[in-house]
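Need a sequence for this fold. Nothing fancy.
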């Protein structure tokens, strides 16, 4: 098993499949009266978050606690970081505390990679800038396998703000490794042509309606206004008209096709409530599966024993 999880590119088919298979076993824990395993008792997991996050930080915290690890939540707000402490000094503090794993979210792409040089424990990338979010890709592919029974051979449309999306990058890399075909869809300002270099066979389209009939999975992305320093489309109404998923567009999809979204959603912009809350939607399942997949990652990377 790999020591660090920094990029979806770190995962080959065997490793990703091992994580998925282990997550199936971990999912059974949530159905028990006592939702805990003793696997990581005595181990320390630090959640080091330099950006606000509810979904991902909580998911990692629940995952570590269900494995009986000691969990330390470190937020940049109200910490020594606001007094000017560097990432390197923070890392040395965590090292001195004996952290066995550090889960890091950071606004700078590459920060998790730098951290691996300063701590002895495992480093898990929980999102770095616009670069990657590998555990999100693992939980998304796990959800596809759960709903559709396979990943190889699927046609996956990733739709929206690809330019600013670490989820899109990680999913594109992992889906290629696992044998799925990816089409990136959105306005040219948010899906630049150079994204075709991400993997050998990724396709790019600027016409959502043309892509929908052949898609097995439609993954909608949040429009990240906070990362936009300029106008990337005329208006939210225009964006929604051309790239938003609504009930009318869902009728163009195959009967078996599913709708995904990593959250949080901008309802009424990239997705309507009809689409988000429909039986085709896996959005709630993705949150549930996130805990199981992160339990599997921590269990395998820290060498736990059942």
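Here you go.
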């Amino acid at each position: 098993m790999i020591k660090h999880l920094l990029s979806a590119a770190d995962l080959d088919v065997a490793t990703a499949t091992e994580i998925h298979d282990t997550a199936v076993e971990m999912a059974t824990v949530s159905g028990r009266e006592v939702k805990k395993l003793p696997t990581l008792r005595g181990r320390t997991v630090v959640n080091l978050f330099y950006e606000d996050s509810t979904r991902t930080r909580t998911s990692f915290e629940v995952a570590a606690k269900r494995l009986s690890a000691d969990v330390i939540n470190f937020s940049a707000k109200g910490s020594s970081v606001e007094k000017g402490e560097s990432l390197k000094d923070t890392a040395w503090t965590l090292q001195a505390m004996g952290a066995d794993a550090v889960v890091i979210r950071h606004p700078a792409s590459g920060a998790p990679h730098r951290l691996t040089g300063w701590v002895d424990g495992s480093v898990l990338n929980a999102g770095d800038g616009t670069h990657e979010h590998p555990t999100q890709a693992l939980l998304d592919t796990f959800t596809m396998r759960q709903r559709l029974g396979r990943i190889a051979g699927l046609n996956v449309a990733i739709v929206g703000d690809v330019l600013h999306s670490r989820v899109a990058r990680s999913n594109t890399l992992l889906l290629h490794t696992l044998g799925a075909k990816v089409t990136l869809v959105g306005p040219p300002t948010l899906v630049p042509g150079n994204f075709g270099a991400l993997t050998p066979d990724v396709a790019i389209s600027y016409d959502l309606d043309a892509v929908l009939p052949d898609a097995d999975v439609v993954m909608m992305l949040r429009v990240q206004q906070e990362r936009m320093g300029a106008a990337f489309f005329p208006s939210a109404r225009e964006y929604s008209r051309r790239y938003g998923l609504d009930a009318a567009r869902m009728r163009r999809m195959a009967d078996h096709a599913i709708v995904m979204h990593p959250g949080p959603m901008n309802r009424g912009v990239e997705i309507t409530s009809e689409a988000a809350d429909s039986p085709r939607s896996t959005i709630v399942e993705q949150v549930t599966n996130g805990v199981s997949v992160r339990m599997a990652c921590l269990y395998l990377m820290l060498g736990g024993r059942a």
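For context: The domain at 134-282 is CATH 3.40.50.1370 (Rossmann fold).
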